[in-house]
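Quarterly update from the structural biology core.
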Amino acid sequence: MAQAASPASAQTGLARYIAIAPGLLVCLAIAIVAIWLRDFSGIKILNPVVVALIIGIGIRAVFGLPAGWRPGTAYVVRPVLRAAIVILGLQVTLSQMLSIGPYALALAVAAVALTMVFTIWLGARLGVDAPMAMLLGTGTGICGASAIVAANQVANGKQEDVAYALAVITLCGTVSVIAYPYIGQFLGLNATTYGIWAGASVHEVVQAVAAAGAWPTDGAVEVGTLTKLARVVLLAPAVIALGYWATRGEKGNAKTPVPWFAIGFFALVVAGDVLHRIAPDLQKLAVGFSRFVVPIMLSASVAALGLGTDLKALKEKGAAPLLLGVCATLFIAFLGLIGARLV
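Predicted structure, tokenized:
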């Protein structure tokens, strides 16, 4: 028979929760403020994750990081973040991914794989640290902020790496949203080709949908959204591959950690597909739940990263990672354009 928890162990558990509470509440408060600012401004492409990062860095710069907040921020950066990534899997189904057709699906896979490899390769030649290059490659290739914070669970970059990568990806993605409609019209693309291009190459999901939705005729936003979702589904295998890449040079008995959160993400993608077939109303409820809690959890996690980020260390990164992010953005833009024309 299992023994009941002793009073001492119960007291220890309670003390741990009490220690976590201050930092956890601060991060949740920052997340709620960040989401409110996005909603209040009416700017849909304003990512609350980035806003939470800026608020966190600002608080750290002005007030420092109180010792009483540290257990809570550490908790938010790990278990809460990983849970958010798992729940993110409810927002897309395999049926949605496959509905874009084999050629557009192949383009999405190629865009993710080739962009990540190119970014890591070029990063080594520009003198950018491997973890930073991995974060920029994953954020550019897959889905921006969500991919960056997920990839860092295996890339093991510093908090400053994550903050810098988020800033670069946000900047490049925002420029893409503005420039893509003009470039597409200049090149004479039709709605379908333009939508595939935007979905296959713009960074954030919201940014890709915004870029596709800016096309003057119907049809672009639907195909753009589906192509983008195909890239999002690739988050799980990409993180697993990064885990092997990050540890490939280690000797001795070191083992590649299994990113169970990535496997959980893909499991919920499959579960959502099953629900879509047998209980569509329940699947819609699950999607609504995911879209409500994931922004809060991700924003809280990145707020914790911001609270732990030293501006001086951020400045020491220099301009090389910014150049790498721009090059990665141009690479996936050209790759996506060529692929969209072929499709």
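The mean pLDDT is 87.
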